[in-house]
Design goal:
single chain; about 500 residues; alpha/beta; Rossmann fold; GMP Synthetase, Chain A, domain 3; 3 domains; 9-stranded mixed beta sheet; 5-stranded parallel beta sheet; 18 strands; binds xanthosine-5'-monophosphate; GMP biosynthesis
Length: about 500
């Protein structure tokens, strides 16, 4: 790839990935690297951004980047910790802040003749999150902006294309953050906006053709966004040499296996649907511990996939839908080399398909980019907009042991909930939704009869990555209608509750 690219040096901030996503939204390619592992080809980057950090530039745990080859030679934007670092170690001063500097603030002063602040005006809302403050600018520092509480909210270094800001332009609440990144990257650093979904598709298809030649590739489809988009890219590159396997574990949503398989076939994919429901249910018999259920499902999946992969002659590659957040090396709070690299121990014990060479066409993309790439290949928007769904499926939404009957009940309940979310235009406003079948029977009355039946919990959350989540404030009328429909239509359920717990301390799934 010959794209213009931007280097983001990570000091461990929770917002670093958000910076990268904002830069990518500007159609500019960027990479995140740990602050202490500057890539050897740093010359090929057009600009550098220093992230924030949970650490302080004062005291013991200072994170020291080696900026010698970069500082003053390339346009640089230092955010929060980055801004404090440049100040503290270049003739300025950083001290503990007297006032709280978290959350909303407004720029009360802007040096208006600066391209850095083009189209941004006094009063603009910015997001602060820091406990240290810059008391004195570094040598050559020129004040660019202030808020009521923070005098040195933005500065530049005279004679360099180095800019520093105390606030976070990457978060949604900094209303002109996108404009500011645009000003820095496009106007000041002259980075070309050449990273588009179309260019990604063209280059990736070409690269895959070169890499794979006439080799055969096997890929496990899950019905989710990542594996589907990866399959489509590979299909464009190598056509029938891509062998897709879509396994029905019997724990999918109602009609999902048939519907999604038909959809995959309609996309022209060389896909084989394997109904292994009975094998999975058999392996789950008598298991009620969530981790044992997960393990059993994982083991059977590998067995089924391995059996199927063996039926393909001379397969050389395993394709995976790995995305960028899975491969970014994380920075530990102490600044040590904390590379989270996944390794396969015990290689001899791995199933045969896992010994194949691995191809990962999405490993440079964030989730929202995967969707944009899928859309640019005209993939169905329902498929691209689907909620995440866990690999073990309904097994971890049926608390305790599983039976076919319980799976059927939950599939019916889940289908009513999800269909209603779509009908009320709420589906796309929710990050993930589903129903849980509780191991609780309670008394009810239907007509003149006493019932003693199951209780289900509905769960709908908003989130960006599943790490934290909050419950969605669904309209009472929606809940009322959905609850009525479930109790009237699904035999065996006489009570519906709505889960109003956030994560943390709860989790999204109940098991
Ligand atoms: P929790 O319940 O941990 O879920 O808050 C966070 C996200 O991860 C999904 N999840 C799983 N996905 N295998 C998966 O593939 C699993 O065992 C699993 N457990 C949870 C969950 O659906 C949510 O999106």
């Amino acid at each position: 790839m010959q794209h213009n690219k931007v280097l983001i040096l990570d000091f461990g901030s929770q917002y670093t990935q958000l910076i990268a996503r904002r830069v990518r939204e500007l159609n500019i390619y960027c990479e995140i690297h740990p602050f202490n592992k500057i890539p050897s080809d740093s010359d090929s980057f057009k600009a550098v951004i220093l992230s924030g950090s949970p650490n302080s530039v004062r005291g013991e745990a200072v994170l020291h980047p080696e900026l010698e080859g970069i500082r003053g030679k390339k346009p640089m934007l230092a955010v929060c910790y980055g801004a404090q670092y440049l100040a503290h170690f270049s003739g300025g001063e950083v001290a503990e802040s007297n006032t709280r500097e978290y959350g909303r603030a407004n720029l009360s002063y802007i040096k208006t003749d600066e391209p850095f602040f083009e189209n941004i005006h006094e009063g603009s809302q910015v997001w602060m999150s820091h406990s240290d403050t810059i008391k004195q600018l570094p040598t050559g520092g020129v004040l660019l902006a202030s808020t009521n509480d923070v005098e040195n909210a933005a500065y530049k270094i005279e004679g360099e294309e180095t800019y520093a800001i105390q606030f976070h332009p990457e978060v949604y609440h900094s209303t002109d953050g996108y404009q500011l990144l645009n000003n820095f990257l496009v106007k000041i650093a002259a980075v070309e906006q050449d990273w588009t979904p179309q260019s990604f598709v063209e280059e990736t298809v070409e690269g895959l053709q070169e890499q794979l030649g006439d080799d055969k590739v096997v890929l496990g489809l899950s019905g989710g966004v990542d594996s589907s988009v990866a399959a489509m890219l590979l299909h464009k590159a190598i056509g029938k040499n891509l062998y897709c396997i879509f396994v029905n574990n019997g724990l999918l949503r109602k009609n999902e296996f048939e519907d999604v398989l038909t959809q995959y076939e309609g996309m022209g994919l060389n896909v084989k649907g394997v109904d292994a429901s009975a094998r999975f249910l058999d392996a789950l018999k008598g298991l009620s511990d969530p981790e044992l259920k997960r393990k059993a499902i994982g083991r059977v999946f590998i067995e089924v996939f391995d059996d199927e992969a063996h039926l393909i002659q001379d397969v050389k590659w395993l394709a995976q839908g790995t995305i960028y957040p899975d491969v970014i090396e994380s920075v530990s709070a102490t600044g040590g080399p904390s590379a989270t690299i996944k390794s396969h121990h015990n290689v001899g014990g791995l199933p045969d398909f896992m010994k194949l060479k691995v191809v990962e066409p999405l490993k440079a993309l964030f989730k929202d980019e995967v969707r944009r790439v899928g859309a640019s290949m005209n993939m169905d928007k329902h498929l691209l907009g689907r909620h995440p769904f866990p690999g073990p499926g309904l097994a971890i939404r049926i608390l305790g042991d599983l039976t076919e009957e319980k799976v059927r009940i939950l599939q019916e309940v889940d289908a009513i909930f999800i269909n209603n979310l779509r009908a009320w235009n709420l589906y796309d406003k929710v990050w993930q939704a589903g129903a849980m079948l509780l191991p609780v029977n309670s008394v009810g009355v239907m007509g003149d009869e006493r019932t003693y039946e199951k209780c289900v919990a509905l769960r709908a959350v908003e989130s960006t990555d599943g790490m934290t989540a909050d419950w969605v404030n669904l309209p009472y009328e929606f809940l009322q209608k959905t609850s009525n429909e479930i109790i009237n239509k699904v035999k065996g359920v006489n009570r519906v509750v709505y889960d109003i717990s956030s994560k943390p301390p709860a989790t999204i799934e109940w098991e």
